[in-house]
Amino acid sequence: NSAQDPCLYIFTQGTETAILSLHVDDMPLGYTSEELYKKILTALKANYEIVELGQPKRCLGIEFQFAADRITLRQEMYAEKILRTFGMHDCKPVDTPMETKWPEVPRNNETEALCTEPYKEAIGALLYLSICTRPDLANAVAILGRYGHNPCDRHWVAIKRVLRFLRGTANRGLVFSKSERLPSMGSSLVGYSDSSFADDCENRKSTSGYVFMLNDNIISWKSKLQSLVTLSTTEAEYVAMNEACREAIWLQGLIKSAGVKLESPTRLLGDNEGSLHLCRNIVFSGRNKHIEVKFNFVKQKIADGQVIVEWIPTDEMIADIMTKPLPRDK
């Protein structure tokens, strides 16, 4: 099994590969050789009671649609179930999951009326969507999830806006298209890293976000409140870059264990030049000596040749959607 994921099993036979992903009693199996598939199936049937269901249509609430040149993953039925559960199936859709300047309420606020609605249940349901097939919901769910222990009525209004956005976009999902790259070129793993500075109203922590693309197909994303208070935008971007770097190293191992050849190093893209200079510079100075040692991880990986950091314009920063609520045009 894979060293990166104990529930992922990779089988090879010559140049052929099969990958089995185990989740309780669900076992999707992908393969490049019919002979290898039958061999694995025979071995499994010798020890377990197996039911063959053919090409997957639904698994763990995710719907699969296969075409000649692409695979689409959606959770439309699950989204519809969420909307009906919370009485929002007939609501009017909106274009964005959150207002760009939504009225944040401190987590220990005592002047607002406490929410009596099933707030935690709604967050949990939306969280599963946001980590499986809906990266466009990740930041809104991350922000609203911070108030799960003490939500106010205003937070429930914000939850309903996310549900209204879901009403108009329930059929959205991830599309994986075939790459035009030659096998000899290797696959391209590219990460986008971004942050918003001191956006949490209570403790002034920043939000990190990253998105990873394998041959232009999105495979990993995250929106997360940083664990410490940073002193500048550059520091916040530097912390975010380190978090993205850790994900890049894990993804490299996972992809290579599946027999996929990767270009090396992985490109990490950021839109803050100061943080990129900090990533490349291994010399401590008075401005950055207070930064925790663990956040210098990216410097080591650059020195090792596993990643490179590059600047891109903010308008091309895909991970921007992971760090803040965006207006409709973005």
| Spatial ordering of strands, largest sheet | 10-9-8-11-12
Uncertain ranges: none
Distance between the termini: 41 Å
Label the overall shape.
Answer: globular
Give me the count of strands. Answer: 12
Number of DSSP helical runs: 8
Please give the radius of gyration in angstroms: 22 Å
Into which percent range does the helicity of residues fall? 25-40%
What is the mean predicted local confidence, pLDDT? 89
The main β sheet shows up as: 5 strands, mixed
Order of helices and strands: EEEHEEEHHHHEEEEHEHHE
| Derived structural class | alpha+beta
The fraction of residues in strands falls at: 15-25%
Explain the overall architecture:
By secondary structure, this protein is an alpha+beta fold. It has 8 helices and 12 strands. It has helices at 34-45, 76-85, 119-132, 138-145, 153-169, 233-257, 273-280, 297-303, and strands at 8-13, 16-21, 29-31, 58-59, 62-66, 70-74, 173-177, 189-196, 207-214, 217-225, 266-270, 307-311. Strands 10-9-8-11-12 form a 5-stranded mixed β-sheet. Strands 4-5-6-7 form a 4-stranded antiparallel β-sheet. Strand 1 and strand 2 (16-21) form a beta hairpin. Helix 3 packs antiparallel against helix 4 and helix 6 (233-257) packs across helix 7 (273-280).
TL;DR of this structure?
Helices cover 31% and strands 20% of the residues. It has helices spanning 34-45, 76-85, 119-132, 138-145, 153-169, 233-257, 273-280, 297-303, and strands at residues 8-13, 16-21, 29-31, 58-59, 62-66, 70-74, 173-177, 189-196, 207-214, 217-225, 266-270, 307-311. The strands form 3 sheets. It has a 5-stranded mixed beta sheet with strand order 10-9-8-11-12. The chain has a 4-stranded antiparallel beta sheet with strand order 4-5-6-7. The chain has a 3-stranded antiparallel beta sheet with strand order 1-2-3, with helices on one face.
